[in-house]
Amino acid sequence: MLTAEASLDLAALRHNLHVLRGRAPGAKLVAVVKADAYGHGVAGLLPALAEADALAVARLEEGLHLRKLGVTRPILLLEGCFCAADLQLAAQQELHSLIHSPEQLAAVLAHPLPKPLHAWIKLDTGMHRLGFLPEQLGDIHAQLAACPWVADEIGVASHFSCADEPGSASTQTQLACFISATADFPGPKSLANSAGLLYWPGSQFDWIRPGIALYGIAPDGQRCGADEGLRPVMSLRSRLIAVRDHPAGAPVSYGEKWCSDRPTRLGVVAMGYGDGYPRSTASGTPVLVNGRRVPLVGSVCMDMLMVDLGPDAQDQVGDPVLLWGPELPVEEVARHTGTIPYELVIKLTPRVVRTYRDSDRER
Ligand SMILES: *Cc1c(COP(=O)(O)O)cnc(C)c1O
């Protein structure tokens, strides 16, 4: 019997890709699949990403892995290359590399490359994490354009820090900064992540870079993917492995953090922080047992968590449990856990079995 399982719906992913494309007709869509497709398992998702114009990852190793899986489309390295040897590999494998620092620029200019490097200049428009200042853009573009082993088409990209906050003044400033800095820029421009794409019309430009929204999850802490017409790709499931009578006044689990105030029945679910379900998840967080919302109670253990099924519960060992998915948004669980949905899906461990389905074919 399969217990901890992340079931991934390829139909939902195709649907989301279609919805997001509709938000920026004419723009190329870069599917951000870093961190193993946000914990969803990139290899299994590739068939549903066929419509994406390009893929993006953070690191070189992730890009090389995608090439090994047979991806022939452009792949963007969002953090770029960290040394001369990385650049050789990136050029060889035709990976697009962001260039965000003087060190990266110097490395590109210093060493001839086996094939033309597809370069993107990273601009800092206000995130203050990576990138060149807007006033440096012209000079850097000129240096790259004059470099014989840099491909002719050079792009420019930047990243939002607060696009998930409606009406954020910082986002308005970043957008205005990007527009004015790139007004005369000859190559493709890219700014919007999921939040930009969903909440900031005017940030789309030539290449959109959605990550979290592709997986059907809203980038801000308040809304849900469904509010934007998106469908959750992941259902995190498990099963009851014990159902027990539990007396009033008795605690459960490590540290005795929760006590029942009535006689009830407790369910033990095969899901714990060893699977990536956070130990910090509070009592009261909803869990779906047989499609019914029940509260998590007591500390989450490494391999198990407990739920209060209620005094009249008829649930049996082996019955299905949903930790998050279409019927219980991961955004809601994240609010109970004091984190963001990104972290919940990405932190699932290898013990959780990833299975892939296509709900369109099940109809
Ligand atoms: C991760 C990342 C994205 C995607 O962000 P989402 O919020 O998941 O849409 C886009 N651009 C860059 C540079 C990133 O690092």
Automatic annotation (TrEMBL):
SMART domains: Ala_racemase_C (SM01005). It comes from the Bacteria. It catalyses: L-alanine = D-alanine. Pfam families: Ala_racemase_C (PF00842), Ala_racemase_N (PF01168). InterPro entries: Ala_racemase (IPR000821), Ala_racemase/Decarboxylase_C (IPR009006), Ala_racemase_C (IPR011079), Ala_racemase_N (IPR001608), Ala_racemase_pyridoxalP-BS (IPR020622), PLP-binding_barrel (IPR029066). The modification N6-(pyridoxal phosphate)lysine is found at residue 34. Residues 233-357 form the Alanine racemase C-terminal domain. Its EC number is 5.1.1.1. SUPFAM superfamilies: Alanine racemase C-terminal domain-like, PLP-binding barrel. Pathway: Cell wall biogenesis; peptidoglycan biosynthesis; Amino-acid biosynthesis; D-alanine biosynthesis; D-alanine from L-alanine: step 1/1. Its cofactor is pyridoxal 5'-phosphate. The active site is at residues 34, 254. Substrate binds at residues 129, 302. Keywords: Isomerase, Pyridoxal phosphate. Coiled coil: none annotated. PROSITE patterns: ALANINE_RACEMASE. Catalyzes the interconversion of L-alanine and D-alanine. May also act on other amino acids. Belongs to the alanine racemase family. NCBIfam families: alr. This is Alanine racemase. The gene is alr_1.
